[in-house]
Amino acid sequence: MKAIRRFTVRPVLPEPLRPLSELAHNLRWSWHAETRDLFQSVDPGAWSAAGCDPVRLLGRVRPARLAELAGDRRFRRRLNAVADDLDDYLTGERWYQAQPEGLPSAVAYFSPEFGITAALPQYSGGLGILAGDHLKAASDLGVPLVGVGLLYRHGYFRQTLSRDGWQQEHYPVLDPNELPLTQLAEADGTPARVALALPGGRALHARIWLAQVGRVPLLLLDSDVEENDLGARSVTDRLYGGGSEHRLLQEMLLGIGGVRAVRAYCRLTGHPEPEVFHTNEGHAGFLGLERIAELCARGTDFDAALESVRGGTVFTTHTPVPAGIDRFERDLIARHFGPDAELPGIETHRILALGMETYPGGEPNLFNMAVMGLRLAQRANGVSLLHGHVSREMFAGLWPGFDAEEVPITSVTNGVHAPTWVAPEVLRLGARKIGTQRAEDALAVGGSERWDSVADIPDQEIWELRRTLREQLVLEVRERLSASWRQRGAGSAELGWIESVLDPDVLTIGFARRVPSYKRLTLMLRDRDRLRELLLHPERPVQLVVAGKAHPADDSGKRLVQELVRFADDARVRHRIVFLPDYGMAMAQRLYPGCDVWLNNPLRPLEACGTSGMKAALNGCLNLSVRDGWWDEWFRPDFGWAIPTADGAGTDAERRDDIEAAALYDLLEQRIAPRFYERGRGGLPDRWIQMVRQTLTLLGPKVLAGRMVREYVERLYAPAARSHRALTPDAAGELAGWKARVRDAWHGVSVDHVETTETTATAELGTTIGLRVRVGLGALTPEDVEVQAVSGRVDARDRITDATIVPLKPAGTPDLEGHRLYEGQLSLDRTGPYGCTVRILPAHRLLASAAEVGVVALPAEDAGEGAGMLLR
User: Fold this and answer.
1) Which ranges carry the DUF3417 domain (predicted)?
2) How confident is the model at residue 322 (pLDDT cuts 50, 70, 90)?
3) N or C terminus of the chain with fewer C-beta within 10 Å?
4) What is d(CA 238, CA 150) in angstroms, rounded to the nearest whole number?
5) What is the pLDDT of residue 335?
6) pLDDT at 3 over 80
7) Cα–Cα distance measured from residue 837 to residue 870, given in angstroms and rounded to the nearest whole number
8) Burial 266-286 (b: 16+ CB within 10 A, else e)
C-alpha cells in the first residue's frame, strides 16, 4: 500500500550525544575527515546504507545503539573533541580577519546551483561545484559570505541506461526535512517567507531553508508551499527544467527573492548586511533590479540608484558562447515587470534597457541575462585568462570604440576546494610528513612553501599510494558497473565478466563531465581500431573510465552517450573501458584520485575553465588536455601533456576532429604509455613519479579554491566595497548626473590635430618623442576628460598591440575657437614596427574603468600626420 502522507521522524539523542546533531547539520563534515570518521563509528553499516549522510544516519540508528554510545567514555571524548574543533573553526580568527581594515563587512554570493555534497543534490555540473567550492573556501578563509540559491525538489536528475545504452532520466523527490537543512523562522517561530508579485494578481511565495556550510550560511528558496497555486509551487521543481517562462520565474525568485531572503536573514540573525553582491552567472542578474527598487523606495531616483548598485556588484560570466546564456523575449519580460506585476516602482522600459541586445550583432528583441549582469556590475570577470580574453571579445559590442582587450572584464581563474577533493589517503601521507595542521593549511590556504615538502616523500611511497588509489577505483567501478547492468535488465548469470573489469596495475585514464557536443565525449572513438589497439596492447595496455550526463532535452548529447556505451559493451574491450552512469560528487571523489591521467578534449576555446583536471591533479593525476581553460594558462611539460589543436579558420569540424584525435592517439602510444610502464633501476617508473611530484608541488598551490577566493577578495570584493561606501546617495546622484551630461555633450568632443617632434619614419630605441594634440571638448571641461597617447608595436594591419598609455597634460588656455592644446612625451622602449595614436576618454573619480561610460573620441583620418605616428 502507498502512504497518503509522509512524515519525518527525528531521533531523540541522549543528552551526552546532543553535539551529534550540530555536527550533522553543519556541512563542514563533508570535507572534515575526523567528523566523517566519527559518524562512521556510530554504526558502520547504517553509515554506508545512509550514503555517508550524517542526517540520514541519525535517523536510522537504533535507540539501543545510541544508549550504548552515550555510555561509552571513549566515544564521548572523541565526540567532544570533534565538537570543540568545529567550535574553534567557527569562532576563531582566520585569514580574512588578519587582513588590513576596509574589507567588506559581508558579501552575498548568488548562484543557480551549489554542489556542496552528494547529500544535498542541488547541482548539475561545473558551475554548481565551483559555487560550492567557493563557499567552502570562503569558510576556511573566514570570508563573511552569505550564499543564495534555490532548493530544487527534484534536484537535477538521476541517470540510468536502457539495455541499448540510451540515457534514462529519473527525478526522485527530495524532502527538505530529510536533508541537512533548517527552516529560517521569524521571532515567533513561524517560517520566514518571501513573495513576488505575478501578472494577473497572483503571487509566488517561497520559504527559506538554511544550509550551514562551515562558517557560511547558504539560503535556499523553495516555492513548494501551500500558499502557492499549482503553477507557482512547481517553480523550484527541477534545476534547468521547463520552458522560457518557467526559467524566468526561477531567475526572478533567485535574484529578487534572494535579496529579500538575505534581508530577512540579516534581520533575524544580526548578520551584517552585505556591502558587495556577487552574481555568479547571469541567472541571478535580477538581484540588481531588486536593490535598485529598494533605493528608489527610499527616495533615490533610478539613475542614482543604478550607479549605487553597480558600485557594489561583481558579475562573473562562465560561458564562452552566446548560446550558453539565458535570453528571453522582450514581451515576456515586460509582462512580468511593471505596474501589474513585480517591481511596480520601476518603469518597465528602464528594466528592458538593461538587458536588451542593443548593440551591433545583437538581437534587439531579446533580453540577455548576461548583458544585464554586465550593465548592473561595475566589476566583471571571466574564469580563466583565456576565458577573460574570449569574454572581452564576445561582449565587446557593449563598449563600442574600444579594442576588445580594453573591455572591462578581467579574469580570476577558478580553483577547487582541496579538502573536498583530495583523497583521505593523500591527506594522511601529507600529514605524516609535515603534520596535520600544516597539511590542512596547505590545502585550504595554499602557499608554495607548504607544498615543497612533497619533494621529501620517497618514490616508493608515492607509487604505493597511486597503486592503492587505483585499486580502490577498480573496486568502485566493478560495484557501480554491476549495479548499472542490473538496472539495464541483466541477470546474475550474465555478469561474471565484471569481476575482471579493469586492472589495478594498468595505466588508467579518466574522462567525466557534462556531455554537450563541444566537450567531445566520443573524440576517443574517432579511430576505433586504433583505440582497441591501445586498450589491448600486450605490454602497455590502457584502460578508460568514462562518465557524464547529457541534458534531458539534448538528444544529440544522449546519442553521444549511447555511442560510447555501445563501444564499451563490446565483449572484446569491456574489461578495459567502462561507462559509469549517474556521474555526481560521490563518484567523482573516487574517480579523480584513482586515475593516472585525466583526459579533456573540448573544442578550444569553448571550455571556460574546466576544473575536473584540477581535482585530479591534487591527487597526483597527470593532465592530458587540449590547451583550453585553465590548462592553457598553467600547462607545463613537467606535469602533463597538451593535445595539439587544429583550430584554424580553414579547418572544417570533421577534419579538425580527425587531426586532434590522431594527436591524442599519438601521445598515448608514443609518450604517455611508454613513460608509465618504463622502469628504472629500483623497479619504479622514476620519470612518471617525478611528474606526479611536480604536479603536486607546482600545480597544487595554484589550483586551490583558497587562492581563487583570496583573489576575489583582493581584486574584486575589496574595490567593490570601497565603491559601495563612496557611492552615497549624493555621490551616486552626482555620478549619474555627470554621466548624463557627458553622454549628451560627447558629440562635441574631438581630436582635431596631432603633431610629433619626430619627422622621420625611423627612430632609435630609447628616443623620446614629444606630442602636441589639439582637441575640442565642446561643453565639457578638462576635468571631465583624460586625453591619452596610446603607443606600442603594430601588427601587419597597423593595429597597436601590447599598448602603453600615457596621459597628456593641458597646456595653456582655449583658443578663440574653444580648442585646447595637450602635450606629453613618449619613450620608444621597444624595437620593430611601432605606432601611436591619441584618444579622449571621460574621467571621474568614481569610475572603476575609463571604458565604463562607453564613449571614446578618436582622431579623424585627416587629424594630421596619419592621426598619430607610425615608425618602421
Assistant:
1) 13-120
2) confident
3) N
4) 10
5) 96
6) no
7) 9
8) beeeeeeebbbbbbbbbbbbb
pLDDT single digits (tens) 378-417: 999 999 999 999 999 999 999 988 989 999 999 999 999 9
- Cell 505575478, located at residue: 198
Q: Are 246 and 281 in contact (CB under 8 A)?
A: no
Return the DSSP state at 416. B
pTM of the model: 0.95
Cell numbers of 147, please?
550564499
What are the beta bridge partners of residue 842? 785
207 near 219, Cβ under 8 Å? no
* Contact predicate 62/54, CB 8 Å: no
Distance CA 233, CA 247 (A): 14
Round to whole Å and give the CA distance between 483 and 480. 5
Q: Give the helix ranges, DSSP H, for 217-301.
A: 230-233, 244-252, 258-269, 287-297
What whole-number distance in Å separates Cα of residue 536 and Cα of residue 573? 7
DSSP characters for 477-507?
Answer: HHHHHHHHHHHTT--GGG-GGGGGSS-TTSE
Helices (H), 179-223: none
Q: What pLDDT does 192 receive?
A: 97
Q: What pLDDT is recorded for position 864?
A: 44
The answer to whether 377 and 279 are in contact (CB under 8 A) is yes
Q: Hey, what domains does the chain have and what are their CATH numbers?
A: 15-91 (no CATH), 95-415+717-726 (3.40.50.2000), 422-703 (3.40.50.2000), 748-842 (2.60.40)
477 φ/ψ sector (left φ>0, alpha ψ -120 to 50, else beta): alpha
> Strand 182-183 to strand 107-110: parallel, antiparallel, or no bridges (unpaired)?
unpaired
CA-to-CA dists, residue 409 to 112, 160, 382, angstroms: 21, 40, 7
Q: What is the number of residues in the chain?
A: 872
**Nearest one of 203, 239, 209 to 222, comparing CA atoms:** 209
Judged on CB neighbours under 10 Å (0-12, 13-18, 19+), 93 is: exposed
pLDDT, mean of residues 318-324: 85
637 phi and psi angles, rounded to 5 deg: -60, -15
DSSP structure class, residue 29: G
* 863 pLDDT more than 50: no
Give the tens place of pLDDT for each residue, 199-222.
999 999 999 999 999 999 999 999
What pLDDT was estimated at residue 867? 41
pLDDT band at 91 (very low <50, low <70, confident <90, very high): very high
Confidence of residue 872 (pLDDT cuts 50, 70, 90): very low
Residue type, 105: S
Look at residue 799 in the predicted model and tell me its pLDDT: 85
Would you give the DSSP letter of residue 704? B
